[in-house]
Task: structure prediction
Amino acid sequence: MSSTDKPDIITEEHVKTSPSKARRKLPPGLRVIIAGITGLVVLGSLFVAYCYMTTPADIRKPAFQHYHFRMQILVNGTSVDFASKEFQTPAGHDVCTAALTKQPIHFHDDKDQMVHIHWDGITGGQVLKYYGWNYIGGQHGSLGMRFDQLPKLVNVPIHGNSLPQIPDGDKFYVYVGDENGYKQKSFDDFTHQDLEKFFGKKSNLPENETSSLLDRLFPKAYAHGGHEHVEGDSVDANQEELKKINNLVGNVVIFVQKDKPNSDLIKDTFEHLAPLSLSTCAG
Result:
């Protein structure tokens, strides 16, 4: 080896000032790709966090439920017809079982007033938002995202903007009761409370933790009291029996108008509740 062919001597100073070999070898195009992937991961994480924060717990991880309540909404004296096609949904084959339905809220069988609740913990505000009146915030056009099928997020879209437009200056007056009497309730309570809490009546479904294995394997139509009934049956049930059969948790009337409704109007509205069905499973 000649005196001019001296091996390179890498000093500590040289290491500090020289770019790393890994960085020198990383092509500019690859650096762009890595930065893009990192950005997508960050954006995806932010989206998931946003969905989680804007989705109520009962929508994030839905649980089976099946009860009913009757709802009437009158906007300046005009009653909303929930039997009309813009509110109706065909009843699925799973509405009489313990299977979790795709959507949490339904009107079907061309019936007015009767709201079918299939997920636990639903609030009145979620019912209103589902049909176009959003007083609870959250994601636009959606009740939120289901997180029970991760890594897949499942959107729970609203049914549509079916409820009528509310005139400026109108207020909400909410009443619960029946043909025997009524009382006024807070609109804020209706929109934000679990409906069972709002009505002060629990669903008659057995709790998941205490129901028998037989109940879970072969679920009956508990939303209708488990009564076996076929068309043509001449059973003459009284109103209390019908409420149990239909798992009815209450009745609510919502007046949307500038001034508080008078007692005659409220009483008359509760005297026009939709009749309850003897059907074992109207869904």
In short: Confidence is low (pLDDT under 50) at residues 216-222, 224-235. The longest strand covers residues 64-75.
